[in-house]
TrEMBL record:
InterPro entries, alphabetized: Integrase_cat-core
Name under which the protein is recorded: IS3 family transposase
Superkingdom field: Bacteria
Integrase catalytic domain segment(s): 2-46
GO biological process: DNA integration
Record-linked Pfam families: rve_2
């Protein structure tokens, strides 16, 4: 996505680490308009 358009990685491990970091960011810090401006984690906790 937006983080990976111009990024190159020296090793597979760097790629995996960066993808995991982005997934964590996406689920815990990136607000989603379609989820009433909540993060996916906040939305999930609200519904549960």
């Amino acid at each position: 996505t937006e983080s990976y358009d111009l990024k190159t990685f020296k090793t597979y491990e760097e790629l995996v680490t960066d993808v995991k970091r982005y997934i964590h960011f996406y689920n815990t810090q990136r607000y989603q308009a379609k989820l009433n401006n909540l993060t996916p984690l906040e939305f999930r906790n609200q519904v549960a």
